[in-house]
Amino acid sequence: MRAFVFTLGMLLLVACTLAGTAAVPTRTALPVASAERGKILFQNKGCVTCHHNSRVEYGGLSLNIGPDLSLYTADPAFLRQWLADPAAIRPAAQMPDLQLTPIEIEDLIAFLNQKD
């Protein structure tokens, strides 16, 4: 007997057809990156614990072991890789993998690279 291999797309097409619609669900686009959401993430994800950024008011404990990011900008492609997995870029990096979602990464990039 021969085994059949189905891709996820094939299974979705079959499911939609059996449900009475031939429309296959489409992927939704990520929301537009937001520097304001990135600023909030910079605080809420704990970036402020290790990094200073003059655009963020923070009165809590700060170790200041990371670079000052007040004037920092970088290539978005580099930042995507770095924020997704710092150790993959620099194995000895002290920065933890924060398990950021793709939109969180885009928001942080928008915040870090914004021009005041």
Explain what this protein looks like in three dimensions:
The chain is globular, with a radius of gyration of 20 Å. Helices cover 42% and strands 0% of the residues. By secondary structure, the chain is an all-alpha fold. It contains 6 helices and no strands. The protein has helices spanning 8-18, 35-44, 47-50, 76-84, 86-89, 102-112. It has a domain at 35-112: Orthogonal Bundle (Cytochrome Bc1 Complex, Chain D, domain 2), CATH 1.10.760. Helix 2 crosses helix 6 (102-112) and helix 4 (76-84) crosses helix 6. The model has no long low-confidence stretch (mean pLDDT 83).
List the helices and strands and how they pair.
Layout: H1 8-18, H2 35-44, H3 47-50, H4 76-84, H5 86-89, H6 102-112
Helix pairs in contact: 2-6, 4-6
Overall form:
globular
What would you report as the Rg, rounded to the nearest angstrom?
A: 20 Å
Oligomeric category: single chain
State the helical fraction.
40-55%
How do the SSEs run, as a string of H and E? HHHHHH
